[in-house]
Amino acid sequence: MSLFRRNISPGGGLSVGEVAKRSGVAVSTLHFYESKGLIGSWRNAGNQRRYPRQVLRHVAIIKVAQRLGIPLATIREAFTALPQGRPATAADWSELSAKWRAELDNRIARLTRLRDQLTGCIGCGCLSLGACPLVNPGDKLSEQGPGPRLLEPSPPQTGCGG
User: Looking at the DSSP assignment, which residues form a beta bridge with residue 51?
Assistant: First the structure.
């Protein structure tokens, strides 16, 4: 069930075209967001989809969060904590962004590590045989599974040193 349906009293509202124009996203994107439970609408007497005005703020938050790489499921979960029936406020955004900051900082650290090790190490998959025997003797990391292991988020490890 959509997050908005519970507290909407039908009447008025914005058409899907109005929301698309004002938010800068395609109608198909709005339908996609709705199918994922991020936004909601109702049908008027003419069976036309209508959105509450606060959907514009929610679409703005979705767009910013997506640019940060926040998964849609995480965005949907965050929306459940917002009070229903009103637009998200600056205080709401402050709370949401604080929760996402740690995730973003972690991703930046992982990308920085990857960038710094890019030329000398592929995370022990392993192609840099000249250096990796020092960090991964006997290919011990293969016991943790296939593919690169050193650049995965956990357990934290150093690079190949290559």
Answer: 14
Going from N- to C-terminal start, the domains of the chain cover 5-117, 119-162
CA distance 96 to 61: 9
Count of CB atoms within 10 A of residue 82's CB? 20
Q: How many CA atoms lie within 13 A of 104 on its CB side?
A: 13
| Residues 14-35: tens digit of each pLDDT | 999 999 999 999 999 999 999 9
DSSP-derived 3-state class of residue 60: helix
Mean pLDDT for 89-101 is 86
CATH architecture assigned to 5-117: Orthogonal Bundle (1.10)
Structure tokens given for 92:
């709401």
Q: Which helix (H) or strand (E) holds 14?
A: strand 14-15
Q: Partners of 14 in the beta sheet?
A: 51
Say if residue 160 is exposed, middle or buried (CB neighbours under 10 Å; 0-12, 13-18, 19+).
buried
How many distinct helices (H) and strands (E) make up the chain?
6, 3
Q: How many residues does the chain have?
A: 162
Strand partners, 42: 50
DSSP single-letter state for residue 65: H
